[in-house]
Amino acid sequence: MSVQSGNQQVKGKVQVGDKAPDFTLPSQDGKSVQLGTYLGKKNVVLYFYPRDNSPACTAEACAFRDSYEVFSDAGAAVIGINSGSVASHQQFASKNRLPFPLLSDENSAVRKLYGVPATLGLIPGRVTYIIDKKGVVRHIFSALLAAEKHIEEALKILEQLKHEEA
């Protein structure tokens, strides 16, 4: 199965319908966050982004922040991941008042585990995974330049999941 993103097909290790691989990474406050702890409790919006403090990544993080209450009301947790250090994430989250965890994947092990592609082989990809309460990947959206579109796509899928659960 492949995922459509505009006219691009994204082939990664993790596909829609797969069980999301579990992992544990440190957050900006130094606490370990394990994906598995959300199982049965919340849907998860897991987004991989290239780097802290770049214009597009800041816009994306702030868009998630600005819609955070909507995500919470939809019963979803938002989690950001990139290869930045805990200290970098701490500064980025504090500066932009981010209410959700940013996880430090310094050796890119989780990025590789999920199969998040690099653009031009250099720039880490911008990919969002919507994972349901059972731990199944329900949607994957990849767009390096349309950072704010990730929020729109995530909310659309969460609304569908809410109707399925009702």
Automatic annotation (TrEMBL):
The keyword Acetylation does not apply. Keywords: Antioxidant, Disulfide bond, Oxidoreductase, Peroxidase, Redox-active center, Thylakoid, Transit peptide. SUPFAM superfamilies: Thioredoxin-like. One of its GO terms (molecular function) is thioredoxin peroxidase activity. PROSITE patterns: THIOREDOXIN_2 (PS51352). GO terms for biological process: cell redox homeostasis; cellular response to oxidative stress. Monomer. Thiol-specific peroxidase that catalyzes the reduction of hydrogen peroxide and organic hydroperoxides to water and alcohols, respectively. Plays a role in cell protection against oxidative stress by detoxifying peroxides and as sensor of hydrogen peroxide-mediated signaling events. This is thioredoxin-dependent peroxiredoxin. The lineage of its organism: Bacteria, Bacillati, Chloroflexota, Ktedonobacteria, Ktedonobacterales.
